[in-house]
Amino acid sequence: MESHTPVSTADRIKTQRPFSLSRFFLRWEWLMIVLIAIVGVINTRISPYFLNVVNLFDMTFNFMEKGLMALPMTMIIISGNIDLSVASALAMSAATMALLFKHGVSIWIGAGIALGIGIFGGWLNGKIITRIQLPALAVTLGTYALYRGMAFVMLGDIPVKGYPAAFTYIGQGYIAGTPVPVPLIIFLIAAVLFGLLLHKTSFGRKVYAIGNNEDACRYAGVDVERVKVILYMLSGAMAALAAIVMAARFGSTRTDIATGYELHVITAVVLGGTDIFGGRGTMLGTILSVFLLGIIEWGMSLKMIPGQVQQIVSGSVLILAILLPNVLGKMMKR
């Protein structure tokens, strides 16, 4: 009598195909690398100082917070969901920390509480989505307004300043004796951890499986609701961490902090090759996309292009990022 080894839904998602050199070099990550090189050459023409090692490292100060939020957003979008409230969760966490500091609480205790607030905000998103069975788009659009409003209620229009040097080092400092910024190291450590979580654990396989066929996952015994809640809690945690890094970088906190960042974060994820409809994507693609967008923004800043025009560019890149995978996908299937 033959024995049959059960195959999980997550394992059935990926079908093995023979290795193809053409498909390998058509991988989305290679496109990201080529685009980074092209934009780098263009920026070199704009400013001869672009390739200076110190300038290259300093450039990363400007987009590490977006990168931190893009990591869990990758997993959320792969699962077939979305989180529009990330930037507002950042603002709410930053405002909480600033309010506590303003009233004499240690900045480190405030940072810990802010982290908890971010996680709670993510948990609330996940619970509303899974318990009430509402679309993630609608729920997080609501909490987008709720969390930003709470930040305004806590701080009003008056910024909080005067953070201690030991705290601002997190956002402004360098690793001793090197030009490597502390925020870059924080991002790279987080990127490795999220990469391992998505690509090397059963939890990550469940994320892919849910994005491909949520109903099949339920029939296979996957606790879909639990996975979703965890994903949103991770998103809240990274939004809070980004709030800490950002407040430390600016040395102050305002309620309009990170306004519009949700667009940049989603653009980074989709441009990195994650399917906006779920089921496909890689953490490496998102990481490369974060650097690509950061270099583009840095180049526009060198050219002193107005912020409104930069916003138009970001929106255009998002549209192209949604359309281009369909073209590349058809080429890879040949």
From TrEMBL:
Q: Where is this protein found? A: Cell membrane
Main subcellular localisation: membrane
Q: Which Pfam families match?
A: BPD_transp_2 (PF02653)
UniProt entry tagged with the keyword Membrane: yes
GO cellular component entries: plasma membrane
Q: Which UniProt keywords apply?
A: Cell inner membrane, Cell membrane, Membrane, Transmembrane, Transmembrane helix, Transport
The residue ranges crossing the membrane are 30-54, 75-101, 107-124, 136-155, 175-198, 229-251, 284-302, 308-328
**The keyword S-adenosyl-L-methionine appears for this protein:** no
Coiled coil (UniProt feature)? none
Q: Which domain of life is it from?
A: Bacteria
Q: Name one GO molecular function term.
A: transmembrane transporter activity
Per the record, membrane topology reads: Multi-pass membrane protein
The record, for InterPro entries, names: ABC_transp_permease (IPR001851)
Which PANTHER family does its entry note?
A: ABC TRANSPORTER PERMEASE PROTEIN YPHD-RELATED-RELATED, AUTOINDUCER 2 IMPORT SYSTEM PERMEASE PROTEIN LSRD
From the Swiss-Prot or TrEMBL record, give the protein name. Autoinducer 2 import system permease protein LsrD
